[in-house]
Amino acid sequence: MANKSGKERDMSEGFKEVDYKKLKKEVEARYKKVLKEAKDEHFEALEAIEKIWAIMNHSKVSSYGLLGAAVKKAIMLVPVPFTRKDIVGAMQLQSPELARNHNHNSLGSCLRLLKKEGVIVEIEAGQGSRPAVYELGK
Description:
Layout: H1 17-56, H2 63-77, H3 84-94, H4 96-101, H5 104-116, E1 120-124, E2 133-136
Antiparallel strand pairs: 1-2
């Protein structure tokens, strides 16, 4: 490609490592933003469907249902492997009121149900003050 002086320009000079790293970082940031938005939209849609189902069936939306939706959303946000504490931390960011008002036993029941359904797998059993460690199911 010719530059202003009419000479051929070496394209390798125009795309330096600094430019490469900057572009790569921008692409990764856009990807993470789009992925987070998609996950948020996914779980909001699930929560809305659950509420509509409850209304159509003349029943009240249980906090366990909302807790389950919040836990599923939190699982998508925490690093793997994760513990109950990681889930509560993510819930505090996404659903602060639910995180504040959840029952410790209800969260445990929710995690057991997700384990039974294969959504999560317990990779290390909890014992005493050491919490159980989970990862996503296959």
